[in-house]
Write a structure and sequence with these properties.
This protein is an alpha/beta fold and 423 residues long. It contains 16 helices and nine strands. The chain has two domains: 290 residues, TIM Barrel, CATH 3.20.20; 58 residues. 45% of the residues lie in helices and 12% in strands. α4 runs parallel beside α6 and α14 runs parallel beside α16.
Length: 423
């Protein structure tokens, strides 16, 4: 009985937080991607959704520099707050040096491969396990010296790594100042049972918060993520789950943001037993899923969890009758919680749009519909020029929220659109 109370206390004390990686891993989806304005909008929506952290890009990739610094400026202004903006780099001192030189990033995840498969298949036997630990700890030491506030250390291909080496790797990371370990199920190799066992061992031995980064190659990314989080909480440490909006990502994608939150809130083993960060809310789930679908150019599947067209649709007589009598007969959660239910108006008559060749009159008409006024002609022309650049930048019609953002933060928008190629 005493042991049971301790476990319950752990579940009350420790928290599951979401770190969304759409702007880092989601954009690595082959043949797809997001423009820097779209990545900025994604950060804004994630912040509105109460997501703890956005891994917002690559601080050593030069075409990201202006976007990253502009978003960090939005954070200082309080626009992107309280969400944490973190960058991803390799766990090598050269990347730490360059990241802190090019950007003002304050939070980093440092990544290095840990499996024998990667040591021999990727590094071709040129690195030993001792080399891996030395590279990682040197990078962590430098990041601390450079003033990085929070450091996560990523064990790439952790699910195929020797568990004893992972424990040693994690212990070294902790001793050098890492705040958490990212356990990467890089190929979706784990199942809910294996990851629970492995995370329990690491968390219990090292006593460090665990971050779960799971891919969907076997269709289990959400299940594996929440099982790993359960293991971390059961071991008395906080858990962090990596997600992407609509499950975007390399190959078969990552754990879907909305599905993961719903699994923690409503599945039988988690509901009222495991705590998700209290800021997390689903009220703009519908909005962020639609935006990601539009920005990536990938339609939302009709049967996608929570946001698919059929997620709350009932046709068969038994189901329709049951849902009408009591929604809980066939609906586990409410569509209103997701920001669904309001009618959406589609314009079928004359439409004036703003784009790369817009003139001032058509442009003013667009902003009049958004109830945005300009103080004079000079300001209107300045925003028009930025809207033209934005349309070239995204190569698709701008959304109303994008138009509003440009009008409200023109100087930030200008930085986001500006790129200077290396010569």
């Amino acid at each position: 009985m005493k042991r049971s109370k301790n476990k319950a206390r752990n579940k009350t004390k420790n928290v599951i937080r979401i770190i969304d990686v759409t702007n880092r891993d989601g954009v690595q989806t082959s043949r797809l991607g997001l423009a820097k304005l779209e990545k900025t909008m994604m950060n804004l929506y994630l912040n509105e959704m109460g997501i703890y952290q956005s891994e917002f890009g690559f601080p050593v990739t030069r075409h990201e520099t202006n976007y990253l610094n502009a978003n960090l400026e939005l954070a200082k202004m309080g626009v992107l707050k309280p969400i944490i903006l973190s960058g991803w780099i390799r766990a090598i001192v050269e990347d730490v040096e360059l990241a802190t030189k090019l950007t003002k990033v304050e939070h980093l995840n440092l990544s290095i491969s840990t499996s024998d498969q990667m040591l021999y298949g990727k590094f071709k036997g040129k690195l030993t396990k001792e080399d891996i630990i030395k590279m990682m700890t040197d990078a962590v030491d430098l990041a601390k010296k450079k003033g990085i506030k929070t450091i996560g250390v990523n064990a790439e291909d952790a699910s195929r790594s020797d568990i004893n080496f992972l424990i040693e790797f994690s212990q070294e990371a902790k001793e050098h100042g890492a705040e958490r370990i990212r356990y990467c199920d890089t190929l979706g190799y784990d199942d809910p049972f294996t990851i629970y066992k492995r995370i329990r061992l690491i968390a219990s031995e090292v006593n460090i918060p665990i971050e779960l980064h799971c891919h969907n190659d076997l269709g289990m990314a959400v299940a594996v993520s929440v099982a790993g989080a359960k293991a971390a909480i059961d071991s008395g440490v906080d858990a962090y789950i990596n997600t992407t909006v609509n499950g975007m990502g390399e190959r078969a994608g990552n754990a879907d943001l909305v599905s993961t939150i719903l699994a923690i809130k409503y599945s039988s083993g988690f509901q009222n037993k495991y705590i998700i960060d209290e800021r997390t809310n689903l009220s703009c789930a519908w909005k962020i899923a639609k935006f990601a679908s539009y920005a990536f150019g990938i339609p939302i599947s009709v049967n996608q969890v929570a946001v698919g067209a059929n997620a709350f649709a009932h046709e068969s007589g038994i189901h329709a009758d049951g849902a009408l009598k009591d929604k809980r007969n066939y609906e586990l959660y409410d569509f209103e919680e997701l920001g669904r239910g309001e009618p959406e108006i589609i314009e079928t008559g004359r439409m004036i749009t703003a784009g790369e060749y817009s003139g001032i009159k058509g442009f003013r008409n667009v902003y009049d519909r958004l109830e945005i006024k300009f103080k004079d002609e000079k300001e209107a022309c300045k925003i028009l020029e930025l809207v033209r650049y934005a349309n070239v930048h995204t190569q698709k019609p701008l959304t109303n929220d994008e138009l509003r953002f440009i009008a409200k933060y023109p100087d930030i928008a200008k930085k986001i659109f500006t790129m200077t190629p290396l010569v």
